[in-house]
Design a protein that fits this description.
The protein has about 140 residues and is α+β, with helices and mostly antiparallel strands. Helix content is about 15%, strand content about 50%. The protein has one domain: Acid Proteases (Cathepsin D, subunit A, domain 1, Beta Barrel), CATH 2.40.70. The longest helix has 8 residues. It is globular and about 45 Å long.
Length: about 140
């Protein structure tokens, strides 16, 4: 499904997995049964013009994520607010994974995936086909200087 942002830029809908990274570590170390790891498959919108990962408050609660202090956010319409930031969000998308912090949004029903997640997972937006693609199918490649 394709949606169009307020500025006319195409956005891509995806499904992906999120989990509580602390739970994953406990399971890895044998302190938590693997089937007790809090995880969820959720819908999200990829918007490469936004920076961060944004999660619905309900998802954050179900995963039991730790919250940091509130941070300042600005919406596309210019409104400003303060929102909590959740720590230890394990994200798996197209077979790639990493751990992120996420802005907690009380009124969202879907996640928002910004360019920081795309960069970390080395994924590109294919606007023509309305999909995400790995830059290199054999695995992420990170540019360094």
């Amino acid at each position: 499904m394709r949606t169009i942002g307020a500025n006319g830029v195409g956005r891509i809908s995806v499904e992906f997995e999120v989990a509580n990274y602390d739970d994953l570590i406990l399971a890895r170390d044998g302190h938590l049964p693997p089937d007790k790891v809090r995880r969820q498959r959720i819908a999200g919108v990829v918007d490469s013009e936004r920076a961060k990962l944004v999660l619905p408050q309900g998802v954050v609660r179900q995963l039991g994520l730790r919250l940091r202090n509130k941070i300042k956010v600005r919406y596309a319409d210019g409104r400003k607010a303060k929102r909590h930031e959740a720590q230890g969000v394990y994200v798996e998308l197209l077979g790639r994974h990493d751990t992120f912090s996420a802005i907690v949004e009380p009124k969202r029903e879907t996640a928002l995936i910004g360019f920081m997640v795309l960069e970390a997972l080395d994924l590109l937006v294919d606007c023509q086909q309305q999909r995400l693609v790995p830059r290199d199918p054999s695995g992420p490649i990170y540019e360094i200087e």
